[in-house]
Design goal:
heterodimer; A: mainly beta; 8-stranded antiparallel barrel; 8 strands; about 10% helix; B: alpha+beta; 8-stranded mixed β-sheet; 6-stranded mixed β-sheet; 19 strands; about 20% helix; globular
Chain lengths: ~190, ~300
């Protein structure tokens, strides 16, 4: 079906780029005093230096991650994710997506808390939990019907393997719980550790 | 953020704002099946000797819709139907997924119709291997004016048809439409797929079949978005019921529950819709074996 042009995607992408450019100037950002240092070597790291090039040593951990998610928590087949490392064992993040599927519009957002029970700087096992907010709009493709929409909130529990060194790679399994029941699922993340 | 990081954001945004859709082909008109020649020629037959077609107008009509999953073992299928008292003596059967192969003794619809003692009509929708795949109507009453419509082709799909005929009930010719829709469609395309067969029907009519209203939202007709189905209402069956209601149809099978179980997932894939008729509650017969679907049925009080 071609009634929903891909121009909307192009516009949204341009918007994302423009917003990114506006933030592209390196900005000094100190580690919040309330946040525990990642390790002894990282305690005095100025994260603004992340934008100036690759980390000087493997012990300097990047706190931000941005990634593309295939399947997984995104609601559709792909989503855009962001993660922030609060401490060595705790992080927060979110995955969102907007999917146009044969005219139906699916908006999805999954914020979560990440725990790293096992692992080191590069290889880690992670567990995540959080809500899944979704809205599905079904416009009518015909004049005699008005269409419909649906909103919902579910929960997601995710666990898997993470590799993080400049790039971020995750493979994981998950369960989604909602008013429709419980369903297993899986996904892959691929992105950058910034 | 580094240049690589900015590019990453852009690439990720493109992926996250995904747009997928299947192409829906053009609509076609109803065609008298008698004008169709070649491998898609329709076949029809009368009940076996000694089993007359009924001519008097009944007070009520029991109508069954059943996807018989190719109907290869017609005798076993007939036994399964006869073994269920609720559908054993139904008046009209709208059947989906019948097939016909030259290597077999007769069309599978013919064998099923004969075994049930009914007049039968088989209309192929497409060639399949050495044979054909299509829809059938079986009835205790005469079947007249058969016509078929090629439903809009869906990208990645197969040619599906709707079969329309009149059931001669004394002085009333009741139009019935038998349909079998594509499987991995989103509801918007499913409506576009079905619409040509139902939009211009008479005021009094019955539509039934395997409408394949699965419970998922699909990405490009390939990936069912299973987690999303747990959070928002992606079940297509009530939405198609709602669409048909806008056309004035009652949906007596709206509350029958699942009509198919596959891979542990139960779905209401089959439906009966009526307009201009007094219709009773719909039913599903899950004790009937022989197919991956369960038959659904209703009693219709004639006007």
């Amino acid at each position: 079906m071609s009634q929903y042009p891909r121009a909307a995607i192009v516009l949204a992408t341009v918007g994302a780029l423009a917003a990114t450019d506006a933030r592209a100037q390196p900005t000094p950002m100190s580690v919040p005093t309330a946040v525990a240092p990642l390790n002894s070597a990282a305690a005095d790291v100025d994260l603004g230096s992340v934008d100036t090039g690759p980390p000087a040593s493997p012990t300097r951990r990047a706190r931000h991650a941005i990634y593309v998610e295939a399947l997984g928590r995104a609601g559709g087949v792909a989503g855009l994710g962001y993660g922030y490392q609060i401490s060595r064992r705790v992080g927060v993040g979110a995955v969102g997506s907007i999917n146009l599927l044969d005219g139906q519009r699916l908006y999805s957002l999954s914020p979560f808390v990440t725990l790293y029970p096992v692992g080191g700087a590069r290889h880690r096992w992670f567990v995540e939990a959080g809500p899944h907010l979704a809205r599905l709009v079904t416009p009518s493709p015909v004049p005699e019907w008005s269409g419909t929409s649906s909103n919902g909130v579910g929960g997601q529990l995710t666990t898997g393997y993470e590799y993080r060194r400049h790039v971020l790679t995750r493979v994981f399994a998950m369960v989604e719980v909602g008013r429709g029941g419980v369903a297993p699922w899986f996904g892959v993340d691929l992105g950058w550790s910034l | 953020m580094s240049r690589a990081g900015r590019c990453g954001v852009a690439a990720a945004a493109v992926v996250a704002l995904g747009a997928c859709g299947l192409e829906v082909g053009p609509t076609a008109a109803w065609v008298d099946v008698a004008t169709v020649a070649g491998p898609l020629t329709a076949k029809t037959g009368q009940p076996p000797d000694g089993l007359p077609v009924e001519m008097a107008r009944p007070a009520t009509l029991r109508v069954v819709s059943f996807n018989v999953e190719m109907g290869a073992d017609a005798d076993a299928l007939a036994a399964a139907i006869r073994g269920n008292p609720n559908i054993a003596d139904a008046d009209v059967y709208l059947v989906q997924e019948e097939e016909d192969y030259p290597a077999e003794s007769a069309a599978r619809a013919a064998r099923l119709g004969d075994a049930l003692g009914l007049q039968w009509l088989y209309v192929p929708g497409r060639v399949k291997g050495t044979g054909t795949h299509g829809l059938a109507i079986m009835s205790r009453f005469p079947i007249t004016a058969p016509a078929k419509m090629d439903l809009p082709m869906i990208e990645k799909g197969q040619q599906r048809i709707a079969l329309r005929a009149a059931i001669e009930l004394g002085d009333l010719a009741l139009p019935v439409v038998d349909v079998h829709l594509e499987t991995r469609l989103n509801i918007t395309d499913r409506i576009l797929h079905l619409r040509p067969a139902v939009i211009d029907l008479p005021d009094t009519v019955l539509v039934a079949g395997d409408v394949n209203t699965n419970p998922y939202l699909w990405d490009d007709g390939t990936v069912p978005l299973i987690p999303t189905a747990q959070v928002v209402d992606t079940n297509q069956a009530p939405i198609l019921d709602d669409y048909m209601a806008e056309l004035g149809f009652a949906a007596p099978t709206a509350n029958v529950g699942p009509t198919e179980r596959k891979y542990g997932v139960e779905s209401r894939l089959d439906a009966i819709y009526t307009r201009g008729l007094i219709v009773g509650e719909g039913h599903v017969e899950r004790s009937v074996a022989g197919s991956d679907h369960w038959p659904v049925w209703v009693d219709v009080t004639l006007p």
